[in-house]
Every structure is written in structure tokens, then in C-alpha cells.
Amino acid sequence: MPTAVDTPVPDRTLPRPPSAGAGRSATRAITRRTHPLWFLAPAFAILLVFFFLPTLFNFIYAFTDWSGFKAAINPVGFDNFTDLASNGTLFRALRITIVYAVLVAVFQNLFGFLLAVLLERDTRLNRLARVFFLIPVLMSALAVGYVFQALLKPDGGLNALIGTVLSRPFDYGWLADNTWTIVVVALIHSWKWMGLSMLIYLAGLKTIPDDVIEAARIDGATRWRTFWAIRSPLLAPAVTFNVATALLGSMNGFDIVQATTGGGPARTTEILNIFIYRTFGQGLFAQATTMSLILFLLVALMAFPVIHLLRKREEVLS
Amino acid sequence: MRRWISGAVAAALTLGLAACSDPAAETSAGTTVTWPEPTTKLDGVKLTIWAAQNSNTVPKKVVEGFQAATGATVEVVTIPDPYEQSIQTKVATGDKPDLAFWQPTASMLTAINAKTNLQPLTDAPWLPKLAPDLRDITGLLDGTRYAALVTSPAVEGVYYNKEVFAANGVTAAPKNFDEMVTLAQQLKGKGVTPFHEMGADRWATQWWVQVLLADEAKKGLWERINTGKEKFTDPAVLGAIKKYQELINAGLFNADIKTAKFEDQGAALLDGKAAMVVQVNSFFGQLQAKADTATLDSKVGFFPISESGNVGTFIPDQSNALVAFKTGDAKREAAARQLLAYWMGPGYSDFVTDRKTVSLQSAVPNPPGVPQALLDVHAALPAAAGSMQALAVANPDLYINLADMIAGTMTPEQVAQATQDQFAQLAKAAGATGF
């Protein structure tokens, strides 16, 4: 059987002997030949159609009167923005969205971090446990929402369990409290995504060089001291990534809230995306677009300071 | 290379712009409508009907009959709830069925952009056969017919438990709203829960306010609101909202009003845990799923109510009517009209018998087994006032605001203001003058 060993290998993948002066242009030529720019075209086309264009249209339609009621689309200037600004619903939805996002960011990172520390050692049991905590990340968010909705109903599984433990009937409406339901939903969201945070924190913990820990131990640091003074500061990049993705990801949340409460009770969990969905469903497409533009701008505005702040913490590393 | 890329980007952008412009573009209307014979052969033609979860069994018998008579294939597709939102979104992106169940009111015909998307049903062959006072009750937008009414439109009124009334010595139904409140107070004194409301499922909350507005509606309330001359925040509507809240605060409703759901409401009335429920026909549909006609006839009665007397408020809903879409395929469009002509023509008798529902046609008698309450509902129709859904140019989320009021997060004034703001926004989008 002929093998590849016998076939002459074209030398373009082999590094050429460096020659003074021509070195840089030679490498460039290699890159050019092995990775031509047009290889980017398919990826770029997808990015264009599914990300850039919708974002562009988000800007355009926000300034029109596009609706389900008529076929014509006319520009209306800033009408949609002034309408929304004069309407309290938008600001309420924005406030709820930010509260929700902050709660998720806190819970998800807390749980993820605890899990990572708990499951850091590579034992067989820990590996298995990591897999189990990662499963919710792979589950459909709607499925997670419906499962929890069934569990948290007044006559659902959780109340039955509490009732058995207390040996008296217990029928608290976990998803029916005007004040606390948003916390419950944020906990569900965090439960779903904590496996991902765990994974990133684990990766962060693994990259801490052993010699640093060893040096600390030789210096007489306790395990507790090592953990707080050495290991947790070195996790800064992981914290940046986790906090940013949790905070900004949950600003765009929809599925879990829709499946558990649908925005209720009394609209106390009506995050902006649910409000947008409701507005769009009424045929007010332009208004819904305007809201999603506002959400886009809000996420962008929050992303920069948050990431900047967290990056500052990483400076201890350099 | 760079020029090549910028060229590609420009081409893709142009293509994208074209693709993302409104697919529901205006097409010219105004040609005369032809009506094929109901049983003309349609071999190889495939029609799609969109239906909601609570209406997808309605066309069963008609579809069977039509397929056997014409050779066409008809598929009923269930669109998930919230039905209207799902359909509007689909139609906005250019996805259309041949026929769909749709609320035949002017506001909802506007919401689906009937002039562009729907076939006019002018001179439909079944119209002369309809009972005269039901012929033009709904389905029209600016004088053009877009919807075919197939079942008796829903009426907002009071469903009551006959046994609870009898046990407490009530022999006659109240003659007006005040009498009903007096009766409720008497019942409460005897330890009976007079009214039941479902604050968690929300949508029924608006019936109370609308019933209280029935007299005003007859005096042109909605025309005034449609033209911006009157607002939800003015005394008429705000007064109704306040009265509703007073009744709730007076303890005339079930104790679990904030968390009760639609299912609870049906069970409460049937089990006699509550004496009265202000509801529409779909509520009775729920009761029919729980009990047979004989039980319902002995247990549940219906009376319409308004401030001045026994006046109902009619609200045709999605399960009452169908619309035919302009799909651009002339053959299928004609077949869709033919299906409607079959439904309301040769197939109508089988249809009402199968559905055990009230007949809209004088020549087709009511089938046996229609519960008395439904006959009473139907009898209330000719004198009924129009609901907000039937007469207003837009349909704001009054019920969500009222449910928030029940939950304690909004005052009646805030309910009225929020509803008015949303109404104005929708009316403006729909192109109503004065907004």
C-alpha cells in the first residue's frame, strides 16, 4: 500500500532558512499562500447576514413607523424614542432588566466559583460531578424554565418536599411573589449557566503555575492564605470573562423568564426582551425595534466600563 | 483583492436590504370576487388552515366533507398560543396560510392589515341565508367584508350556578347591575362567594369593565374614543374601572383572586364554590369539557347584564370566524373561497351538529344537545352592545393593567392612563385620525 511517506512533500509548509532582510516578507508570502484572505469570505458572509445586517436594520427601523397594520414604511424621525421616553413602562422594564442581570452575574459567578474550587482536584468522582454540572448548560433554556415552573408551582414538587419535611401542608407561590420572584428566576438562570462559569474558573485554577504555590508554601503561608493572596488574584482573567458574559448575557435574557413567569406576577419580572416581544406581537414592529436598539446601546454602554474595570484588576498579573 | 471584497460586501448589503424590506408589500385590490360552486372538483389542490389550540377541532367535520366532495387536501395547522401574536409575526415575515381562524373585529382586521393580506369576501353566497340581525354584526372593515362568521359570536355576561341561587332563595336573575351587586352582598352575608375572577390568567378581568360600559358603548363611547374625543382616563371608563375595584375591595370575589386561573374559575362555578362568573363563550366551552349537557342545563345558567338592564356585550373571537389570505396563487385563493362556501352552504348542517352549536342560518335548525345557556347567550346577541374589541380601532392590553390592579401594583388611574397611552400608540400606528 503506498503511503504518504513516499510522496514528495511540497516544501511550502516548511520553514525556510532565515535570510537577513528577506525574513519578514518571506513569512508574509507563506501566510498569503497557505491562508488566502478569501478563505474568510464564507464566515464573513454569515456574519454579515446574521449579525451586521440585523444590527444595521435595528438602527434603520427604529426611525420608521413600520407596523403590522399597513404595508408602507415611512421615516418618522425620533417619534418612537420620544414616545418611549414619555412612557414609564420602558424605564420599568430597563430597571428590572438591570436588576436581573446583576443578580444573575452575582449568583452565577458565586456558584461557578464554589463548584470550581470544590471540584478542582482531578479525582474520578470530581470529573463525573463536573459533567453533571455541565449538563444544564447544554439543556434547552425553555426546557429548564418549564421544569422549574412545574417544580415551583404552589402544588409542585418543591412545596411537596418542604411539606413532607415540615409534616404540614406548604403552598408558597415561589413564582407569585411581587418582590422575590425576580430573585428566584435569577437563581434558575444562574443554575443553568453555573456549569460554564465553573469550567472557566477551573481552567483559570489549572493555569496557576505550581512553583508560585510551592514558593508560597515554603514561605509558610497557610492554605487559606495561599488561596486568598495567591490563587484568587491570579484568577482575574477568568473573573473578567465570567462576570462580563453573565452580566451582558442575562441582559439579553428571555427564554428562562418567559418559560417560568412570562413576566408576571404583576409584570415584576417583565425584563426588556419580554416587553419587546409583547410589543412586537401587537404589530408595533418599529416600536419593538426601537426598544431593542435601546437594549443594544445599554448593553454596549455597560460592557465598556465593566470590562475596563475588570481588566484593571488583571494588571496585578503583569 | 481589496476591491473584490468591498464589491462583495456592497453586493451582499444590497441583497440584504432587498431581502429585509417589508415582504407584505401592497397589492392592488378592487377586482370583483367570484364564488365557485361549493362542490367543484379540486383534485390536487392543497389548502392550509391555521387554527389555535382551542379552535383546531372546529373544522374537523367540514374538512372531511369538503375533501370527500372535491378531492382537495386540507391541512389544519395548530399555531401555538399566544395565537394572534404568532400569526401577526408570521404574516409580517411573509408566511401565509390559505385560511385562518381570526377575530373578525375591525381592530383585529386592521391588526393583520386586511386590505393587503386578506381576500375580500364581497357578495358571499351564504349571506342571504344568515339570520338578518347577525349578517353584518362583524367581519367588516371600512365597508368591506373580510371574515366569514361560522359560529355564534361570544357574549360577555354572567354565568351563574342555578343550585347556589336556589339554595339561597334566589328565584329570578338580577334585572340590572345594581340588583346584581345587592344580590352579591346578600350571598356574601350567607357565606357564599358571590363572584369569581382569575387574576393570574388575567384575560377575563376586562369583561367586568366592558360589561359596566355596555350602556355607554350603545351611546357611542367607542366612536368617541376612536377619534380621540374621549379617553380611557375620562369619567366613563375610569368610573367603570373604579367600580370594579370597589367590588373587589368589598370582598365580593374569591379570596384567591390574585392567583386563580381559568381552570379554577370553571371548577369553582361548577362545584358551587362561587355563585357567578362574568365571562364569555370560551368559559362555557371549558364547562362543556367538564360536564355533559344535562348536568350543565341543571346547574349553569346565563344572563346578560349592564348598568341599565339585561344587555349583553358581544365580542366575536378567533374561534367564531375565518379569514382567507391573498396568497398570490389564484387557484388556491379560489379554492379557499370555495371551502368557505362549502362550510356555510352544504356542509353547515353537519358542522353545527358535530359541534353541538347554535346555527346562524334560519334554514338550518339548531342541532339537539345544545345547552340552554348557549341558547340564552345567542338570544342576547341581537340586543347586545359592542365590546372594546368589536368597536375600538385598537385593542390595548386593558386586561393586563386590570390584573396588575388586582395584584395591587397599579391604581385605577394608572390603569386608565397606561391603557390610554397604549391605545393612542396602536391607533397612531393603525393610521386613525386624531392620534
From TrEMBL, chain A:
Its main location: membrane. SUPFAM superfamilies: MalF N-terminal region-like, MetI-like. InterPro entries: ABC_transporter_permease, MetI-like, MetI-like_sf. Residues 94-306 form the ABC transmembrane type-1 domain. It is a multi-pass membrane protein. Keywords: Cell membrane, Membrane, Transmembrane, Transmembrane helix, Transport. This is Sugar ABC transporter permease. It comes from Actinoplanes sandaracinus. The lineage of its organism: Bacteria, Bacillati, Actinomycetota, Actinomycetes, Micromonosporales.
TrEMBL record, chain B:
Residues 1-24 form the signal peptide. Keywords: Signal, Transport. PROSITE patterns: PROKAR_LIPOPROTEIN (PS51257). InterPro entries: Bact_solute-bd_prot1, SBP. Gene3D superfamilies: Periplasmic binding protein-like II. Pfam families: SBP_bac_8. Belongs to the bacterial solute-binding protein 1 family. This is Extracellular solute-binding protein. It comes from Actinoplanes sandaracinus. The lineage of its organism: Bacteria, Bacillati, Actinomycetota, Actinomycetes, Micromonosporales.
